[in-house]
Amino acid sequence: MTGSETQLKRILVLYYSFSSQTKNLVQSILDGMAEYQQAEVICERINPSIPQQFPIGTIPKTVHKMIVTLFRQRIPIHPLPEYCFEPYDLLILAGPTWSYNPCGPVLSLLDRDGQRLFNDKTVIPVISCRGFWRMHWWGIKSLLKKAGARVPNGIIFTHTSKEPWRTIGVFLKLAGETPERMSWMKDHYPKYGHTRQQIDEARKFGEMIARAVTQGEELERLEFNTKLAIYEK
Ligand SMILES: Cc1cc2nc3c(=O)[nH]c(=O)nc-3n(C[C@H](O)[C@H](O)[C@H](O)COP(=O)(O)O)c2cc1C
Fold first, then answer.
1. Which of 25, 69, 147, 229 could be a cystine partner for 118, CB 3.0 to 4.6 Å?
2. How far apart are CA 150 and CA 91, in angstroms?
3. What residue ranges define each of the domains in the chain, with the CATH number in brackets?
4. Is residue 118 within 8 Å of residue 144, measured between CB atoms?
5. Distances (CA, A) of 211 to 3, 15, 123, 125
6. For 111-122, what is each residue's pLDDT tens digit?
7. Can you list the residues of the chain whose pLDDT is less than 50?
8. Which residues lie across from 114 on neighbouring strands?
9. What is the per-residue pLDDT for 222?
């Protein structure tokens, strides 16, 4: 290899998204990464083998889902393509919070493929949540470390409406309502999920990650804990 040639770095992004919020963040992260041509980025959706319907549709079904996810119910998933198990310089594992935990499809992935995918790898988790992310963050870090991964950093995006509206809003949205149009909600709850500015912030994070990976910078030093990403109160 001549001095001017650089080794292509490889990044694998794995994600699950129920109501498109993680998907939007991941798409923007990928757009940011695309700025760096020395990085080959592969993205793979984690696909449940039992179809997951959004919205859940009714209040009783939503309450039931909240309860079973509190007990970390697994959602079975299809096998990943073989190329996911090849060597990568970095893996990103993205998914929503479900009742303080990683979501069911991500838990299934960790159970089934955790060692094979993550052992000796560097992994950055990405969390999309309404607002309660700490338990999910500790949990996913610990599960990844148990699988043999190094977790140098993490990306967390919360929704931006104020409490209690964002909790009520998410619940109603999952139950199949449109809280952003309800007369008693709409002044407090303009939108379900992440804002345009947060999606733009995710793009910046994607650029930062790809730059760090291609230029050998420390991933620990990347600042993802910004006011736009994590909305406290
Ligand atoms: C069953 C279920 C449980 C949830 N529990 C939490 C929770 O404990 N904390 C939280 O902040 N958000 C919780 N949420 C909200 C989601 O994490 C949030 O809406 C996220 O942005 C959805 O991402 P997605 O569209 O990629 O699935 C829950 C959502 C569902 C479907």
1. 147
2. 10
3. 9-159+194-221 (3.40.50.360)
4. yes
5. 19, 21, 16, 18
6. 999 999 999 999
7. 1-4
8. none
9. 98
Task: Give the pLDDT confidence score for residue 2 in this predicted structure.
Answer: 41
Pull the structure tokens for residue 230: 């994590």
* 46 contacts 14 by C-beta, under 8 angstroms: yes
**Binding site membership of 19 for ligand 1 (Cβ less than 6 Å):** yes
| Three-state secondary-structure class, residue 89 | coil
pTM across the whole model? 0.96
At 179, is the secondary structure helix, strand, or coil?
helix
**Is the CB of 65 inside a 6 Å radius of any atom of ligand 1?**
yes
So what's the pLDDT on residue 7? 82
Residue 72, helix vs strand vs coil: coil
> Is residue 160 lining ligand 1, measured as CB closer than 6 Å?
no
* Cβ-count burial 38-72 (b if 16+ within 10 Å, e if not): ebebbbebbebeeebeebbeeeeebeebeeebeee
pLDDT at 3: 40
103 Cα: distance to centroid of ligand 1 (angstroms): 8
Q: Cα–chain-centroid distance for residue 127?
A: 4
State which H helix or E strand residue 91 sits in.
strand 90-98
Mutation choice for ligand 1 from 69, 97, 165, 230, CB with most ligand atoms inside 8 A: 97
Bridge partner list, 101: 98
